[in-house]
Specification:
The chain has 177 residues and is mainly alpha-helical. Helix content is 57%, strand content 6%. It is built from nine helices and two strands; from the N terminus they run ααααααβααβα.
């Protein structure tokens, strides 16, 4: 089989496998070809991992901090939010509590930080306080407390929304805390 035939078949295989960007290069050297091929695969793996982290996170909306209207909340310290956006608090395993009345953007900021963390490679999980309490209470009744606690300790960033939105019975509060 001639070199041109092998080259042409290789390009056809690349197109068939969806690696069109690699196939469009004009006869690269072996190292360049291998680098391009591996880069395309690394990019595909990273994209699949990102999509998996996004599915696991269960974030309710796709909002960014750039979309947040700081002029609507003039008392909000923009520099503090920008510092949170560095995700240093995740690395430091620090707690962040967003406090305020309904409708001021707490959920938007939390989910925007969650998306940023997912994109940075962190495992994130979003839940409401009511759901967390219901799941832990059910686990306690069914004897699955340890497994449930391992689940809640798994994500590097756990976003618990609507805390204080609904009253929590004392036993449920003990499950939460």
């Amino acid at each position: 089989m001639s070199r041109d035939t092998v080259y042409q078949q290789t390009r056809e295989h690349l197109h068939y496998l969806g690696l069109g960007a690699v196939a469009e290069k004009s006869k690269p050297g072996y190292t360049e070809f291998l680098h391009s091929l591996l880069q395309a695969e690394v990019d595909a793996v990273e994209q699949r991992r990102l999509q998996g982290r996004l599915r696991f996170a269960k974030l309710p909306t796709r909002k960014t901090l750039e979309q947040f209207d700081f002029t609507a909340q003039p008392k909000l310290d923009r520099r503090l939010v920008e510092d949170l956006a560095t995700l240093r608090f995740v690395e430091e395993k620090a707690n962040v509590l967003l406090i305020g009345p309904p409708g001021v953007g707490k959920t938007m900021i939390a989910t925007a930080l969650g998306h940023r963390a997912v994109e940075a490679g962190y495992r994130v999980y979003y839940t409401t306080a009511a759901d967390l309490v219901a799941r832990t209470a059910k686990a306690a009744l069914e004897g699955r407390w340890a497994n449930t606690m391992r689940f809640w300790n798994g994500p590097q960033l756990l976003i618990v929304d609507e805390l204080g939105y609904l009253p929590m019975p004392a036993e449920a509060a003990s499950h939460f805390f």
